[in-house]
Each structure stands twice: as structure tokens, then as C-alpha cells.
Design a protein that fits this description.
By secondary structure, the protein is α/β, with parallel strands linked by helices. It contains 15 helices and 15 strands. The protein has a 7-stranded mixed β-sheet, sandwiched between helices. Strands 11-12-15-14 form a 4-stranded antiparallel β-sheet, covered by helices on one side. Strands 1-2 form a two-stranded antiparallel sheet. The protein binds pyridoxal-5'-phosphate.
Length: 451
Amino acid sequence: MSDDSSARIVRAIKDWLATAAPGARLPTTRELTARHGASPVTVQKALRALTGQGLIEARPGVGTFVPASRVNRPGDRGWQIAALGPMDSPVDGTLRMAPNDVVALHSGYPDRTLLPERLVRAALTRAARGDISRTPPAGHPELQAWFAAQLGTAAAADVVITPGSQSGLTSIFRALKSRPLLIESPTYWGAILAARRAGAELVPIATGPNGPDPDQVARAFAETGARAFYVQPHFANPTGAHWDAGRILEIAQAHGAFLIEDDWAHDFGIDADANPIAARDDTGHVIYLRSLTKSVSPALRVGAVIARGPVRDRILADRTVETLYVSGVLQSAALDVVTQPGWQAHLRSLRRELRARRDLMLDSLRTHAPDVEVTAVPAGGLHLWLRLPDGTDVERVVRACEDEGVLVAGGTMWFPSEPSGPYVRLTYSGPDPSAFPGAVRTLGKAISQRI
Ligand SMILES: Cc1ncc(COP(=O)(O)O)c(C=O)c1O
């Protein structure tokens, strides 16, 4: 049985369904077998896939039919607008899946060639043979212990396993209640949206390659009464900034506030290693986030929040109400990957690969888009943060690139308030680095309005 031929049959039947009348009968399995030159098993597989999608109905002993009434008829759903009220900010386009024929420099996720695919597949096979019962709400104890040991100073009991760090952010912001929240500007759009949804009033603090200005942070704590500051001191998304958070932690401590340290790119150091401030805090002021989504596999979605004291219990309570617990199979697989000897070897080769890709993109920018300012050469992470010449219409540049088959991310959504200039973010971790020079040439042309 071949996956390709079953997919081919699925496509052919979908074409047929596009014009088929409701209730029409599909050709028999025997006819489909002959028509597509495929085995009955392959045809059955295609029919099962279409049934699963609700596109056809099997009536045992009678045949297979187009459903009499299609559920997806467009209808008047305007009433929902009145029922739902105003909308929150829309989720950003960096999650868009890119078709194969475009160069994807917009996404936050590494290409599959940068993932430890062999380790992940072997780990999933072993996990499928292991325990399939429920795991404790705080997570698989051995995985908790692994995350704690990574930080050095934490105990396994401080760790709450999450399905990725986005859900960790949501729970942290909810646990802190809707107080004013200091937040770097620019910063990760998902943190901005999660904090807003939790009802936080955002207080933007300008940040740059050396992090936020400590005096401004102290003033903002004093003036707003905020009790938390969300920061990314290591290879920040989007700026790539890498800075020591020691002084900022002292300021948070002096104001009885939390520092939320998002170490999303821990495994993506290039010229430096992430050195979490959480490892130097024994006062419970740092709430630390780490994720394996991007470094192990986006298909596993395993992350952790590490916190001490009542805030940890509140975060766990929020997680438990939200999801009860994280799939034990996925946790076991993630733990298996990061405890294999091959994991360290993978991280070493990933570092080399990211360096080569980052440098190729920087070279391409120097050659093909000299008007662009690279705000800082990132010592790690997955992205370059580019300032375009003043007055550039970012949305026009993004559209012009897209028309030429190059996806780039306009910078506006990384700002919690007005953007401080025209920016775009380019990822150097997407597929096919050989396409970088051509794609950057397209960006250069779009900026200088030659397309
Ligand atoms: C800074 C930062 N924090 C958190 C996340 C969410 O990570 P996860 O995929 O583990 O939910 C991202 C994803 O891009 C991110 O960039």
C-alpha cells in the first residue's frame, strides 16, 4: 500500500465531489480500484480518510455516498457578531503555513532539517510502548527533575510541565491577575496577546541590544505599582538581544515584584550560551519559562514553568483547570530525546548550522539590501530584526515581497504600543538557505520601490 497513491485517489475523489450532487453514490471499490490502478487496500484507505473528514458517508452493505446535506453551506452568521461583542487583537500571521514554492522567512519555527528527527521518531516509538496512563498535573516527575537540573538551583517540585511555553505564559499572566504589567517593547507578540487576554494593563519599556534601561524600569515600577516585568534576556524574539538581567532582578526585588524570564531560545545559542537569571534567584522573584517545542519538535509541544512559592501553586492551579494534565506519552518522548547522548551532538551541529545560516543572511543583506540596518548581530536565536529606512511603508514591503514569493514578517505586531520605527523580522531557520540571497535581493528591491 502506498501513501502516495492513496493521496492521489483522495484528490481525485475530492475533484469529483466538487460537482457531485448531495446524496450521489460513489463508484464501488472495485470500480475505483480499476480506475486508479490501485489495490483495494489503498482505495479503502482513501475512502476512510474522506469519511474521517466528513466528505463522504459509508452505508455498510449499501455503498458510499455524498452526504445528503453538506454541513459547510455558507449561511448568515452575522448574529454571532452581536452575541460575541468586540474582538481581541487577531493572532499574528507568522504562524501561516507557507506553500512549497515560496521562500518562508516569516515563521518562528525551525525547518525540519534543524530538528533531531531521528531521535524524536525513536523516542515516540519507545513512548508508545511505555506507560499510557494519566500523569500528575504538574508533570512527569522525571521530566520535572530534568528541567530543574537544567537550571541547577531548582527542585523538581518547582517545575510545572506545560504543553509549550505559550500556555505557560497564559497561566502566569492569569495567576498574576490583572495588574499593570511591565513588558519590553518590542517583544514576542504571543506574550503581548496572552497578557492582554488575561486583562493586564501593559506598560511598555523600550528595550535594545543591552536590554531595558534600569532607571526607566525602576521608575515604571514606582509610578505604576506594577508587580511583574516580562523579559527575554537571551536571544530575544524579535531583536536577538542578549543581556545580563542581574540589575533588573535587583530592581524587581526592591519593588516586591516578579521577573518573568522567558528563555524560549535556550537551545539556540550561537556565539554565547543562555545563562538564566533564574539560576541565581533563591527569593522566588523569578518565574522562568523554557520550551522544547522548537528545539526538540513542534509536534511534541513540551515546555516548563519553574517558580517557587505560592505563585507556583497558582500557576499549577490554572494549568490544571485549563488542561488537567499534559499527555504523558509526549512528555516521555521529550524526556527520552533530551537524555540521549545524540541530543548533545545534535545541539552542537545545530549551533554550527544556525551560525552558517545567520552569517549567510547577514552577507546577503550587506550585498542586496544595503539600506537596511541590522539592529544587532544576534548571538543566538532564529531571527534578524531589521530597521528599514525611515518613512518606509512596512505593509507595502511585506506585500511586494509576497507577490514575488518571499514571506517576511512586518514588525508592528511585536510592539505593545506604537512601533518605534519601520521594522521587519527575517528568520534564518526556515527551509533552503540557498534561497536566502535571492529572497533578500527581493526585500532590497521592495524597500527601494523597484517592485
Ligand atoms: C519568546 C517566545 N516565548 C514563547 C513562545 C511560545 O513557545 P511554544 O511554542 O513553546 O509555545 C515563543 C514562540 O515563538 C516565543 O518566541
